[in-house]
Specification:
The protein is an all-alpha fold and 138 residues long. It has one domain: Globins (Globin-like, Orthogonal Bundle). The protein contains 7 helices and no strands. The zeta chain is an alpha-type chain of mammalian embryonic hemoglobin.
Amino acid sequence: MSLTNSERAIITTIWDKMSMQADVIGTETLERLFSSYPQTKTYFPHFDLHPGSPQLRAHGSKVMAALGDAVKNIDNVEVALTKLSELHAYVLRVDPVNFKVLIPCFRVVLASHLKGEFTVEMLAAWIQLLSNVVIVVT
């Protein structure tokens, strides 16, 4: 799916604003994922999954770093996330459904941080980008 110039601008503007809080947003996204979809915990048996744990914060940072790579390479997400895709598909063998359920968790956390600034246009732009990310990673 191709992004319009307007969608690209929205995504990069929001990313610039939220990148300062990326670690917090990533952690909160994972916390929401694990509470809303407990079956996703099976991939993290070695993690302390309590809210705010160091392992959760570290992995949340990794998730957001990957998303940052997608934003920086917005026109070539596939190349930017190739190694991540191969790791999750062939080494870790993560069920692709897990990426699809991660996306709404991220959107809720993003909206909660942006509050009244989060518009329908922003939501639509992020849905496009995140859909592209899911396609690439799965």
